[in-house]
Amino acid sequence: MLGVFAFPALLPTFSAEWGLTATQAGWIAGIHFAGYAVAVPVLTATTDRIDAKRIYMFGALLAALSCMGFALLPGGFWTGLALRLMGGAGLAGTYMPGLRALVDRTSGPRQTAWISWYTASFSLGTSVSFLAVGVVAELWGWRVAYGMSGLAALAALGLVGLGLSKETPAQASATPGALLDFRPVFANRAVMGYVLAYFAHTWELFALRSWQVAFLTFALAGAATQPSVWASPTAIATWSALAAMAASIWGAGLASRGDRARTCAVAGAASAAMALVIGFMAPLPYPWLVAAMLLYSALVQVDSAALTTGAVLIAEPGRRGATIAVHSLIGFTGGFLGPLAFGLVLDAAGPDRTLAWGLAFACVGLVAGLGPLILWTRRHILATKHD
Predict the structure, then answer these.
(1) Cα dihedral value 156, 159, 160, 164, nearest 10
(2) What is the pLDDT of residue 179?
(3) Contact 269, 244 (CB under 8 A)
(4) Three-state secondary-structure class, residue 75
(5) Listed residue (27, 146, 30) closest to 88, CA to CA
C-alpha cells in the first residue's frame, strides 16, 4: 500500500516539476484505479480456481516494479501514466485477492470481524503512504520515497509467501462456467445493490484522497504563517486516513448489529452532503478547515467496510471470487473516474479560485449521493438476504 497514494501525496510537487495541468494530474491519479479495474476481474476471479496467496504475490511484484520505475526512470506525464497503470494492476492482485486469502483461512462468527478489519486496514495503508512518502520526499526527494515504496512491496511479497500456508479455494469444485462469466453475479440484485453503492463510494473516496493534499495546499497559499510539520497538508492527509480507518471499523460494527443497508445509506448520504460544501470552505481559518476535512474523511469511510462485507456475505459460496471481482471492477471504475472528473471541473472553473474547488467537490458529492439512493430502493431485498 505504501506506493498507492505516493503520487497524490506529492501531487503539488509533480504538478510543478512536470508542468501538469489539473486534468493531467487527475489522469495520473485516477489511472491507478483504471489499472485496478481492468486487472481485477481476471486476478480476483482466478481465486475461485487457485490459491489467492499466489495471486497476491504476483500483485505485490507488479506494485514493486511500478514504484521502482518512478524511482529510476525519467519523469513526465506519459511515464507517470504508464507506471501508475501498472501499480493499479498490482493493487488488483493484492487487495481483494488478499481478502479472499483471508476468507479461505477463517470461518465462524469472527469471520465478519476479520473482513471488516482487513478492509479498514486499507485506510491504515493510506495513512502510512501519505506520511512516509511525504517525510522521505521532504528529506531525500521523491525518487527515494518511491524506491522505499518499492522495497515495501517486496517485503509484503515475502511476508505473504512465507507466512501463509497453502490453501485450496473454498467451494472451487462447485463453481460452474467460464472464469469470466459474471452473469450470475449481475443477476443477483441484492449483491448488485452493494456493488453500485460501492461505485458511488469509491468515486468520492478516491477523488478526496487524490486531491486532498492539493486542496489544503491551495487553502494555505498566501497564508502569513505556515503550519507545523504535524499540520502540513500531507500530515493532515495521514490523520484523515487514520480517522477514516476508525470510522470504517465503527461503521462495520454498527452495520453488523443492525440494518446493514440502512446504515450504509445514512452514512453515504451524510458524506455526500459534506462534499457539497467542503470545497467552498477553503477561505476558512486553517484549523477550522482541517477539522472539517477530518470529519469529512471519517464520514466518507463509515460505509466502506460495511459495503464490501455485505457483498461478500450474501455472495453464493462458489462465486465469492467472481462476486469480489465484480464488486472491485465496478467500484474501482468509480475510483478512476472520480479523480479525473475532479480535475476536469477544476481546470474548467480555474484551479486558482475557491469556486472551482467548491464545484469540483460538489461534483463528487452529487455522484456519491446516488449510493444511498440505490440502497434505499433495494432495502427490502437486502433485508431478506441478510435474514
Answers:
(1) -160
(2) 63
(3) no
(4) coil
(5) 30
- Tell me the H-state helices in the chain: 6-9, 11-18, 22-45, 52-72, 77-104, 111-140, 142-163, 183-186, 189-220, 233-257, 260-278, 286-301, 304-313, 320-349, 354-368, 370-377, 379-386
Residue 110: DSSP 8-state? T
The three grid cell numbers given for residue 168, joined into one nine-digit string:
485450496
DSSP state of 21: -
Handedness of CA 244, 119, 194, 88 (dihedral sign): positive
pLDDT tens readout for residues 263-321: 999 999 999 999 999 999 999 999 999 999 999 999 999 998 889 888 888 887 777 77
Task: Pull the grid cell for residue 6.
Answer: 505516493
Altogether, the residues listed in the chain come to a count of 387
**Which set of grid coordinates corresponds to residue 67?**
514504484
CA 113 – CA 196 distance, rounded (Å): 23
3-state secondary structure of 47: helix
Q: Is 62 exposed, middle or buried (0-12, 13-18, 19+ CB in 10 A)?
A: buried
HSE-CB at 357 with a 13 A cutoff on CA atoms is 21
CA dihedral for 312, 313, 314, 315, sign (positive or negative): positive
Query: Greatest CA separation found in the chain?
Result: 66
Domain limits, the chain: 6-166+183-386
Report residue 274 CA to chain centroid gap.
Answer: 19
Q: What is the CATH number of domain 6-166+183-386?
A: 1.20.1250.20
Residue from 19, 21, 29 nearest 212 by CA:
29
Please give the Cα distance from 197 to 221 (Å, whole number). 36
For residues 144, 145, 150 and 155, what is the CA-based torsion angle, rounded to 10 degrees?
Answer: 110
Quickly list DSSP for 261-308: HHHHHHHHHHHHHHHHHHGGGTTS-HHHHHHHHHHHHHHHHTTHHHHH
H runs (alpha helix) in 164-259: 183-186, 189-220, 233-257
The per-residue pLDDT for range 51-76, each reduced to its tens digit, is: 899 999 999 999 999 999 999 999 89
